[in-house]
Design goal:
This protein is mainly alpha-helical. It has one domain (8-182): Nucleotidyltransferases  domain 2 (Four Helix Bundle (Hemerythrin (Met), subunit A)), CATH 1.20.120. 59% of the residues lie in helices and 2% in strands. The protein has a two-stranded antiparallel sheet. The protein starts with 7 loop residues before the first helix and ends with a strand.
Length: 183
Amino acid sequence: MTTITLPPEFSSFLDDFQKESDRAAAVLGAAYLDERLERLLCSVFVGTPKFVEELLKGQGGLATFSSRISIAYATGLITLPVAQDLHVIRRIRNDFAHTRTQVTFALVTVAQRVDKMQVLDMLGMGQREALQGSANTRGKFNAAVALLIFLGVHVRISTSARFKEAEPLIVHWETSGREPSAV
């Protein structure tokens, strides 16, 4: 049996996260998940830190939350339901971050997105029932973020094996009479 330890900042993040406004919670929840995905990718990628950083920062191909979700799923680091729920979190974050008007979890469109999150099915029946209703959409969002951080991403950081660096291929040049070379 593997024991998984929470990162020390997880508890303080959850405490602060619970106290935030709806807008701040949507943005911070997504940002924390994005950071944990980056950490997951760094934990398995081969190569020098410079190559990995070029992928994950600035204009790198994996610098966005969306691209990190997609590559984590495509490489088998996270499951399809986790990837789908992370995309829901990303869309909710965008709803809050890119709108000048007041957005809350009480909005029908936001509530419908939260209700689609599959990770909430992991809650026990009593817990799930306690979160039902539009008045508890924020509670469901908070629970989904916490479950995704821990079960969807953090556990994978602790248990995923590092990718193996490609081994050189030995090429035999039969027609040229040249010695084999490594590529």
